[in-house]
Amino acid sequence: MENLAQNKECLQDGGIINSVAEKPTEAFENATRNIPEGEGNGSASCSGVGDAERDENALQNKELPNKRKHEPEDNQAVKRLVSEKVAIHYNTLQECGLAARSQSRIFYLRNFNNWLKSVLIGEILEKVKQNRRDVAVLDLGCGKGGDLLKWRKGRISKLVCADIAAVSVEQCQQRYSDMKARGRSNDCIFPAEFVSTDCTKELLADKLKDPEMYFDICSCQFVYHYSFETQEQADMMLRNACERLRPGGYFIGTTPNAFELVKRLEASETNSFGNEVYRVTFQKKGEYPLFGCQYDFNLEGVVNVPEFLVYFPLFEEMAKKYNMKLVFKKTFREFFEEKIQIEEHKMLMRRMQALEPYPADDRSKLVADNLEEYEHVQQYIKGCQAKLPLGTLSKSEWDATSIYLVFAFEKMS
Ligand SMILES: C[S@@+](CC[C@H](N)C(=O)[O-])C[C@H]1O[C@@H](n2cnc3c(N)ncnc32)[C@H](O)[C@@H]1O
């Protein structure tokens, strides 16, 4: 696991994570510049006003006719079905033990994503702590509590965990109780509250013990894209994330990069693209409405549920309603390249086994059987006599992780 930095370069040279689109494809840009007509997830349409005005109009709730009241009941049922599908999916996802996880084809990809979240959360906590001793956190879409240890490490003062999947929330609560029970008697672990609700439809504050409470951080990891089904849902989730943040507080998260998804879709001959670890399937090509642009995402048995494109410039505009200013938006590749330069993060990467040692030693075997999956590393080794083993991800895992981006917004006073 040495030579992480060099290896990172080798990965780029190999073209593994350099397919990140900085610009939307033309088709997507055209489609997303239009205003959704009426209903939030309607198809894009042209209104005859300039692009900037159109974008501006699209973001003002009050200027969009509210057709929701007249929405046919079967449409409402379809929408209910999507969120039910998401909740059922996550509720029935089995938690597998460490032994089974380490056998997974995406063991390193998962660890890599987890490393990235750890770095993001750690850095934001550090920033907030420059001005505050007590830090209250909202984990929006907490799942089974995958980030609980990060909050403990960050010595926060209070945690609220919310998720649509009731079984996941129960498991998260159990994990928290176990963590508390395992702690030493003088370990002071933060108090926590657990809420099971659809954060795209319900106001979370109403469900808290103290509806007036304020947060310093809202963390929304791999979740926000579920809200982009309609404008109302995206706005409600944003409201839950940001309305009760203190000035100087942060809204951080990770979400798929719509530009990258559309770019890969447009390059594909079908409505689908992917590889042996992930697959994304759109219903059609060439039309990308601002809301409700649905696709199915499948990650080696981890997720196979409907998700929605999040057009980031729109997300950024919508966040202004809650006085949020974008601090940064980076692709996973950009974030990785920047953070891996820092020794502490490099060490964490080793500890978390976030890259696969290449070549495998005598006692182990690579996660991918196909040697083409490691062509980039072989080329690098040839070119520069690197000290082995190197740390890497298989090509398919890089392709899967490089779909995502990481963002941070700050609440203005
Ligand atoms: C990919 S998981 C991420 C879980 C966790 N944040 C993590 O990083 O480990 C996505 C989570 O979003 C939750 N979710 C999806 N739609 C939601 C909604 N409308 N309200 C609240 N949570 C939602 C799912 O139940 C699931 O737990």
TrEMBL record:
Domain (MRNA cap 0 methyltransferase): residue spans on this chain: 104-412
Organism for this UniProt entry: Acipenser oxyrinchus oxyrinchus
Enzyme Commission number: 2.1.1.56
Transmembrane helix keyword on record: no
Gene3D superfamilies for the chain: Vaccinia Virus protein VP39
Protein known as: mRNA cap guanine-N(7) methyltransferase
PANTHER family referenced in this protein's UniProt entry, alphabetically: MRNA CAP GUANINE-N7 METHYLTRANSFERASE, MRNA GUANINE-7- METHYLTRANSFERASE
Classification via CDD domains: AdoMet_MTases
An annotated GO cellular component: nucleus
Any GO molecular function: RNA binding
Function: Catalytic subunit of the mRNA-capping methyltransferase RNMT:RAMAC complex that methylates the N7 position of the added guanosine to the 5'-cap structure of mRNAs. Binds RNA containing 5'-terminal GpppC.
Record's keyword terms, sorted: Methyltransferase, mRNA capping, mRNA processing, Nucleus, RNA-binding, S-adenosyl-L-methionine, Transferase
Binding site for mRNA: N113, N114
Family per similarity comment: Belongs to the class I-like SAM-binding methyltransferase superfamily. mRNA cap 0 methyltransferase family.
Site (mRNA cap binding) location in chain: K144, K150, R175, H225, E307, Y404
